Structures are given as structure tokens and as C-alpha cells.
Amino acid sequence: MEAILKHLEVPQEGGQTPNRWINNDIKPIETGRRTWSFWTYHNFCVLIGSNISVYMTGSSLVAMGLTWRQALAAIVGGNVIVFVLLAVNSLPGMFYHSKAVVSGVSSTDGSSWFSLGQPSGVYAFQAWIGGECIHVCLQAIWPTLESRIPNHMPRSTGMTTAQFVAYIIFMVLSLPVMYIRPHKLQIFLYISAATILVFEIVILIWSLATMGDSGLGSTISEPGGGGSGWKVAFGIVSSIGGSAAGILNQNDYSRFARKPRDAILGQLVGCPLYSILCAVVGILVTAATQNRYGEPLWNLPTLLSAIIHHGGSRSRVAAFFGGAALSVSQMGLNVPVNALAGGFDMAATFPKYINLRRGAYITVLLSIACNPWKLVNTATTFLAVLSSYSVFLGPMIGSMTAAYFIVMQRKIKVEDLFPDRGDRSIYWYTYGVNWRAPVAWLCGTIPSLPGFVANVDPSVSVPVGLTRMYYICFLTGTVISAAVYTALHYIVRASEVKGFVDSAPSPEMLMREYRARWDGGEDSVEGIVEQVKP
Question: Is the link from the previous residue into 272 a cis peptide, with omega within 30 of 0?
């Protein structure tokens, strides 16, 4: 058994021998790997803000009963909040260049389990959408694809064998991208961002130029009272939910910034501008094609399939390239935001046996168990999925924000994130677990669960107050978890953390001290992790 475990250990990389506490992927980022520029962060935000989920959000809100103006207002409001939280949760990585799990709500060991499941679920959802794009490409080549591949899937699954094959193809095509280290992702992010922007411009021009006398459908042209203020609030939360995973994991990538201003300005320009524009494109394209196809096709792959079946050979060629462009952009979103984020979390939990690449591949395997094929079938289901991100991820974000700004007061003792023995670290807490984090998460999540269950299963009836609590779940969950996390740290103090915060110099001086070590060269991080022995 010992020989097997020895064989499974992570290979030594970057001069760092992997052990129970650290490996090369989670140690502080040295100068040579800080390669992300303004344009890298800009392109990353393009992919977070201009993906298929965001495109579908606007038209899905209209399908839910909001007017297009209400939907747009909800999207603008939601994305302003997204930008603020994205910037706030990037700060520890920008200045300390350390891993999100260890600089946020968790300790150096046990409570990093707390965030392990999240990336797999989000990856599954986005991978299924990517599979739908591959399905479009296959349909463009073989319009009779569904008859060529006999369907052996039960009706209850909500998918066909051909769709499942396309999903597997997308998963397989994504695997080589996961092999690329984050500090070398710039070219792929350029390609992915350019691809989705060009596609959205082309499909907008095509839909408006070819709608003819039929004009815009009722999605925009039909007057109506729209939805209530609570439904607008639900739209805001859904808009945030589409980017919640990016907010939670952004610190993983802000630590690769060449300079803090590269990350700040890249996010300022890239978010929320592209999210708003993408949602507007979704509303306009859905309205412009509604009369042509007899119904609002809010799901973009479904629209491309309609183009294939209602057009000729040139339409099939256009749909093929459209599906290919969307597939590339989905990889550009899903691999860094979810697969690699899961890899970072697993590497932080099992650094001796799992590095970034292994963790990313494990995340992909676990994602299949989430049954993502049931999540994008209707506008209501789609919005329920987005809002579920807000239910479960919002409290995590609240705890992370409170930990860094209130409890730690922006002061991190980086060497104690990677001790040679856990109980020597000020972040060891209680047997390696900062129990305040899961308690705060539960307090932030529980109030929204009844309304969430009722939204997913209409047969469940709950009081209107609980439904409204669910409509603003991200806001309430974030605030409650932040308040509880802070209160617990004041009621049951982590004395060693408190002692360091009180005795350490100002955050600015502390950040300069650590940056001076990193800026000394490739091997300068040894000054921080030299005590970490295998």
C-alpha cells in the first residue's frame, strides 16, 4: 500500500516538493508565473459576461413575465453588484498572490472540504450547454442526426442518445485545454473571447436584417404590465447567479496578475459591460426571430437548430460555424472558471496527491453525476438553476468577504498558510477546521431553501414571505453569512489570528513586505515556504 501511495504522489515542480500542506499549484505565485495582463483579465471577463447562460438570462426573464425593460433593469442591477463583488474578492490574490481557499474562509486543512462540490455542479451545467453546441454542429452535418443515432434514453431523462453523445464529445474536447497551466492561458482566452464577440455581433445583425415585415415578436413589441417588483428582484438574483461561480473563484486568478491595476482595470472594463450587452443581444435576437419560428427561442442552441431545419445548405454551414464558435467560448468559460477552479480546491485539500491537472480531471468526472441534462429544458428551470447558484454560493462569498475585510483586516500571515505542522499555524483553528465558516454558510442558506424548493417543485406550497426571501436569496444569504461569520469570530475568538491582526503592521506594509520577497526572482518564494518540509 505504501508503494502505491508513493507512486500516486504529485511530481515535484517549480522547486517545491509536494507534501501534506503544499504543492507548486497552491504556493504563492512567484514573478515568473505572474503573466496575466489587462487584456487577459478583460478577455476572461468577456467570457464570464458574454456566454450562453447570460445570453439566455434576458430572454428567459421575459419568458417568465417581465417586460424587456424590466429584464434589462434587472440585468444592469445584477451586474453592477457582480462587478463590485468580483473586484472585492480579487483583492487578496492581487496583493498576496495566495490561494483563495486558504486566504478566505477556511483553514490550512479540513475546512477546504467546504468548497469542493461547487465547481463540479457548475461545470456540469455549463458542459451540457457546450454539448448542445456540439449537437448543433453534428446536426448541421447530418440533419437527420436523431434518426441516424437510435435513441435508447428513457423519456424521463429529458435527452436523446445523440444529445448525450454530443455532451461526451464536448467533455473530451475540453480535456486538452485543462492541461494548460493558468499562467499560459492567455492565447486561448484571446481566441475564445474574440470568437463569442464576433458570433454575437453576427447573429444580431442577421436576425434584425432578415426579420422582414414580420417585425419584432411580442417579446418586445407587445405591451403589458410586466412582473412585480419581487420578480424584478428575482431577475437581479438570477443575473448574479450566472456569475456567482466566477466571483467565488476569481481570487484563484487575480493572484496571477502582473500588477494589481491589471486585474482591477481589466475587470472594470470587462464587467459589467459585456454582460449587459450580451443580455440585450439575447432579448433582441429572440424577439427578431419569434414570428419567423412561431415561438420565442430563448435557448441559443435551439435557435441554431431551427435555422438548420428551416433553411438550406447555406443556413446549415452558418449554423455549423455558429455552433463551433459557441463550443469554443464555452470551453473558454468552463475550463478556467469551473474545472481549474475545482482543481485548485482539490490541490489545496490533498496537495501531496492531487495537483491542478489531476484535480481538474476529477472535477470533470464528478460533474457527470449531477445529471445536467435536466437543467436547461425550460426558461423556468434555467432560471431556477441560476438562482440556485445564488442560494448556495452567495453565503460562501459573504463569509469570504467578512473574513478578509473584517476579521483579518486585510492582513494575512502567508507563511502560516503552509506550515510544516498544521497546529503551528495561526489558521489551524479547531483541529484544522474553521467551524465558523460552515455555520455561517448554513445560516445564510437555510432561509432561502423553502422558497427554492417551491420554485423547483410547484407542488410544494410555502408562505409568500418565504418565496420573497428566495427572490432576494443572494443578497440575504451574503449579508447573513457575513454577519454570522463576523459575530462568531467576536464571540468565540480565534486568539492567534486576533493576536496577529493586532500586532502586524498596516496591510499596505505587510503586502509590500511579501511582494518584496516575490519580486526578488523565481526562487524568492522560498523565503515564505522554506519551512514546509516533506
Answer: yes
d(CA 324, CA 308): 14
Distance CA 79, CA 87 (A): 12
What secondary structure does DSSP assign to 15-66, as a single string?
TB---SS--TTTSPPPGGG--B-HHHHHHHHHHHHSSHHHHHHHHHHHHHT-
C-alpha cell at 151: 435513441
Q: Is 430 helix (H, G, I), strand (E, B) or coil?
A: strand
* Bridge partners for 257 per DSSP: 36
Measured from the Cβ of residue 433, the count of other Cβ atoms closer than 10 Å reads 18
Q: At 531, is the secondary structure helix, strand, or coil?
A: coil
Over 90: is that where the pLDDT of 174 sits?
yes
Q: How far apart are CA 251 and CA 99, in angstroms?
A: 7
Report the candidate in 338, 323, 284 with the shortest Cα–Cα distance to residue 55. Answer: 284
Q: Please, which residues bridge with residue 36 across strands? A: 257
- What does the longest C-alpha to C-alpha distance in the chain come to? 74
Helix (H, G, I), strand (E, B) or coil at 435: coil
Looking at the domain covering 39-387, what would its CATH class be?
mainly alpha
The pLDDT tens digits of the residues spanning 219-237 come to 665 555 555 788 888 888 8
Beta bridge partners of 433: 430
Angle between helices 38-49 and 260-270 (to 10 degrees): 30
Q: According to the model, what pLDDT value does residue 419 have?
A: 62
Letter for the amino acid at 141? I
Q: For the CA atoms of 197, 272, 217, 317, what is the dihedral angle to 10 degrees?
A: 20
Query: Using CA atoms, how far apart are residues 34 and 253, in angstroms rounded to an integer?
Result: 10
258-269 burial string, b = 16+ CB within 10 Å, else e?
eebebbbebbbe
Question: Angle at Cα 478 formed by Cα 477 and Cα 482, nearest 5°?
Answer: 115
- Model pTM? 0.85
Q: How far apart are CA 216 and CA 479, in angstroms?
A: 41
CA torsion 4-10-15-17 (nearest 10°) is: -50
458-492 pLDDT, tens digit per residue, is 788 888 888 888 888 888 999 999 999 999 999 99
- pLDDT tens digits, residue range 279-321? 888 888 988 888 888 888 888 899 999 999 888 888 899 999 9
Give the C-alpha separation, 43 to 318, whole Å. 25
